[in-house]
Amino acid sequence: MPVGKSEGPLRSRANLFRTHPSLTIILSLLILILAIFTSASTSVIPRLGLLFGHLTPRHTPATTTRHVTTAATMTTIYAAELEVAQLAVQRAAQLTKRVFREKGTKGAVAKDDASPVTVGDFGAQALIIAALRARFPHDAIVAEEEAAPLRTDAALRERIWRLVRETRLDDVAAEGLLGGAVADVEDMLALIDRGKSEGGRRGRVWTIDPIDGTKGFLRGGQYAVALALLENGDVKVGVLGCPNLPVDDAAPLTADIGANQTDEEGRGVIFSAVIGQGAWSRPLGTGALAEGKRISMKPITEMSSASFCESVEAGHSNQSEAAQIAQKLGITKPSVRMDSQAKYGSIARGAGDIYLRLPTSKTYQEKIWDHAAGDLIVREAGGQVTDTKGQRLDFGVGRTLATNSGVVAAPAAVHGQVLEAVQEVLGLK
Ligand SMILES: Nc1ncnc2c1ncn2[C@@H]1O[C@H](COP(=O)(O)OS(=O)(=O)O)[C@@H](OP(=O)(O)O)[C@H]1O
Ligand SMILES: [Mg+2]
């Protein structure tokens, strides 16, 4: 075959570029634009999409559960989960703070187990689940409340819907990261009922306590908006919003911390932790996340000057046994009583030292949403958390900590000593 025949088209293309130099420029520009677009699509575009709520692919565990950036080996494992969880807690806390300031009953109704639930609990749960559905639609959710009482009580339902409709972060980008507003009342009820998962040891499970310490919330004391991510039964991300705790990590715990509190200036903190990445605190805000600070437990040099935290409610933790344990350890200060997982946050930042929760009944099973976030935050701050038998809290059993009994949380260096005193007093040795 003549050589010229196969070279024909090539030569004519070369002639084309020679006679039309502008074609070369256009082609180069096209290649440049293509290169920029390819690199942007892996970084900028996903964030833009999130801002407008629907452009990016929704989360699928296989693709975005763990992404580790290559640049300078900076680890961003669970970075998206941490950001969304903190913003979701911050948004929900705006709602609970509004209810907290209301005089009167705060829409409280009694649940089947006689514990109270307020409009704040339902509203906060709806808002948190809305964010999780928008960003991690395949994840299971174990949440404390269910919508049944709202389906039969129109006035209660309308009151909660108004709160949910009117609560948003005052930063457009942050609100966009949470997927925006809840569509309507029916959607709100459906969201609340998405929290009925049985939990367990497989896959990704979020656990939510929209108002932990509802009795404290009603009393004007401490409460927490609690959210944690479990993966295969282990806590990977934990976030606690505590609107009535001081922002200042160094502020000592006062005797009155469990009552007559406000969320005014200087109060409101978010604690957070990711497995293997330490624990942090930052001011609880109303829009984008404020800057965080690393927190750690205070080393106990003298057990006699240690302080321990326990529940306000004598029905939730045996206070006389706790006093005997304190005495055995030589602790001289009276216990600090406060509601909710604010206790875990307070010892994690060194404001207190030890948290004891001693069973008051043989049949009560602790709920995973009452402990998951606090457990990780304390452990990542240098603490150890076990039950009274010395076993790690097992969040993979289901909705409750069915195999555990009570909680003993203390700095790792003295946990063994504290546990020994607990076991002696409880007759477990
Ligand atoms: N009998 C018994 N024993 C142990 N724990 C119980 C018991 N009954 C209830 N609860 C749970 O306690 C949660 C409140 O947490 P605290 O006990 O730390 O705070 S408080 O001082 O009691 O308010 C509280 O959480 P919220 O319902 O979210 O307030 C309950 O889940
Ligand atoms: Mg609770």
Précis, in short:
With 429 residues, the chain is an alpha+beta fold. It folds into two domains: 79-295, 2-Layer Sandwich (Fructose-1,6-Bisphosphatase, Chain A, domain 1), CATH 3.30.540.10; 303-426, 3-Layer(aba) Sandwich (D-Maltodextrin-Binding Protein, domain 2).
* Terminal-residue CA separation: 96 Å
Q: Low-confidence runs (pLDDT<50, min 5 residues)?
A: 1-17, 35-73
Q: Major sheet: order of its strands?
A: 3-4-5-6-7-8-9
Coarse shape: globular
| β-strand amount | 15-25%
Q: CATH superfamily of the largest domain, please?
A: Fructose-1,6-Bisphosphatase, subunit A, domain 1
**Which structural class best describes the helix and strand composition?**
alpha+beta
Put simply, the count of helices is: 15
Largest sheet: 7 strands, mixed
Radius of gyration based on Cα positions: 26 Å
Beta strands, count: 14
Keywords: Hydrolase, Magnesium, Membrane, Metal-binding, Transmembrane, Transmembrane helix
Organism: Thermothielavioides terrestris (strain ATCC 38088 / NRRL 8126)
Enzyme class: hydrolase
Family: Belongs to the inositol monophosphatase superfamily.
Describe the structure.
The protein is an alpha+beta fold. The protein folds into two domains: 79-295, 2-Layer Sandwich (Fructose-1,6-Bisphosphatase, Chain A, domain 1), CATH 3.30.540.10; 303-426, D-Maltodextrin-Binding Protein, domain 2. The protein contains 15 helices and 14 strands. It has helices at residues 3-19, 21-40, 44-51, 61-64, 79-101, 119-135, 148-151, 154-166, 172-177, 185-192, 214-219, 319-329, 342-348, 372-380, 412-426, and strands at 109-110, 116-117, 140-143, 204-212, 224-231, 234-246, 267-274, 279-283, 293-295, 308-310, 336-337, 354-357, 383-386, 407-411. The strands form three sheets. It has a seven-stranded mixed sheet, with helices on both faces. A five-stranded mixed sheet has the order 11-10-12-14-13, with helices on both faces. The protein has a two-stranded antiparallel ribbon with strand order 1-2. Strand 7 (267-274) and strand 8 form a beta hairpin. The structure holds 3'-phosphate-adenosine-5'-phosphate sulfate (PPS) and magnesium ion (MG). Residues 115, 144, 209, 212-216, 311-313, 315-316, 339-340, 360-361, 364, 367, 370 line the site of 3'-phosphate-adenosine-5'-phosphate sulfate (PPS).
